[in-house]
Amino acid sequence: MILAKEFNRNEFARNSDLSISTIRPELPTIAQFGSNSPLELSRASSLAAPFVNGVDLNCGCPQSWACAETLGAALMEKRELVRDMVIATRQRLGDDGWGVGKEADIDNPKGKGRSVSVKIRVHKDLRKTVDFITTVLGDEHNRNIDWLTIHPRTRHTQSSVPINLEALELLTNMFGDKLPVLVSGDVFTLSTLPYTSHFLQLQPTFASNADKPESNKVPAPGNARLNLPKLAGMMSARALLANPALFAEYETCPWEAVDIFMTNVARAPLPLQLAIHHLTEMCGAGFGPDRSALLSKKERIHLTELDNWIDVIDFIDDVKESRGIEPVVRSTMDL
Ligand SMILES: Cc1cc2nc3c(=O)[nH]c(=O)nc-3n(C[C@H](O)[C@H](O)[C@H](O)COP(=O)(O)O)c2cc1C
C-alpha cells in the first residue's frame, strides 16, 4: 500500500515506494494505494499509470494507524467515498489518454489499458458488504471497477482465524457474474485450498513447472472441496513470501526460487536487510502441510547476522554444497 498523499508530494516517496521490473516487462504490475480522497487517489494514479498496468485502492488494511487516518479497512464504512474515489480515478486516467474500458482494453493495441480495482474485507453483517460492493460497482453495464479482491475476514478478525468461506461463497455467487472477483487469504498451497474453481485446472501463467519433481505436483481437486465456480483468481501474501513458487504449484520453496531471487538482487539491489529478510522467509518452514525448510533455525539466525552480500552468497553456496545441491553458475551474462 502506497500512501497516495505522500506519493503525490514527495519524490523520495515515489522513488522508494514504486519500483518495477524492467527485466520481465510482460508481467503486469498493479500499484496499490492507500487514500481517502478522490483528488489524491486520482493524482497518484495519474503519476503511477505510465509505469504500471493498473491501480488498486486498499480498503482492507486493519492497522490502527491506517484506520485512524480513515485509510484501509476504515473505508469499509465509507462506501460512497470509495465509489467517488474510483470514479474520479477512472475519469482522470481516461482524461490522461489511458484505456479504461475494462475488458475492451485488456488487449489495448498501444498497451495503454489500465485497470482500477479495489481490495476489501467483509463486515460482520454481510448485508453491509453487499451494499458496499453494490455502491462501488455502480451501473453493472458500465461498472466503476475492473475487479474486486475480497479478503473474507472482518477488520477485527485475526489472520490465524480461517477465512470466512460462507461469506466468500455468497459474495462470489452474488457478484461473480458482474465482475471478476478474486480471493485473498489462506492461499497456502494450491493443493490444500479449501475450495476449488475452474481456473485452478489451468496451467500456471508465471513460471514453468516442467522440471518439478513428481512429489511436488498438485493432486487432483478432491470432491469434498467447496466449488466456487464464479471465483476468478487468488492472491497470496504470507505463503507467497515463504514460497514464491506457490503459483507454479510447488508445495514448498525450491532452491531454484532462492537462486532466482539472489540473481535478481544482484541485478537490481535491495537493501541488504530486506534481501536477508526475504531469504529467511523463503528458507524457513512455509505455510503448507509440508513443514520442511531449506535452512535450519540455526542457519537462518546465522544468515541474519551477516553484514554484506558476498558473505550471504558464500553462505548459501556453502549450505547447498554441503547438501549436494548443484551451485548456480553466475555469469556476467546472467547479470
Ligand atoms: C507482510 C504483509 C504485507 C501486506 N501488505 C498489504 C498491502 O500492502 N496491501 C493489502 O491490501 N494487503 C496487504 N497485506 C494483507 C494481504 O494482502 C492479505 O490480505 C492477508 O495477509 C491475508 O492473506 P494471506 O493469508 O495470503 O496472508 C499484507 C500482508 C502481509 C503478511
UniProtKB/TrEMBL annotation:
Ranges for domain DUS-like FMN-binding: 1-192
Name by which UniProt lists this protein: DUS-like FMN-binding domain-containing protein
Keywords: Flavoprotein, FMN, mRNA processing, Oxidoreductase, tRNA processing
Pfam families on file: Dus
Catalytic activity: a 5,6-dihydrouridine in mRNA + NADP(+) = a uridine in mRNA + NADPH + H(+); a 5,6-dihydrouridine in mRNA + NAD(+) = a uridine in mRNA + NADH + H(+)
Function: Catalyzes the synthesis of dihydrouridine, a modified base found in the D-loop of most tRNAs. Specifically modifies U47 in cytoplasmic tRNAs. Catalyzes the synthesis of dihydrouridine in some mRNAs, thereby affecting their translation.
InterPro entries: Aldolase_TIM (IPR013785), DUS-like_FMN-bd (IPR035587), tRNA_hU_synthase_CS (IPR018517)
Cofactor: FMN
GO terms, biological process: mRNA processing
Transmembrane segments: none
Signal peptide region: none
Entry GO MF terms: flavin adenine dinucleotide binding; tRNA dihydrouridine synthase activity
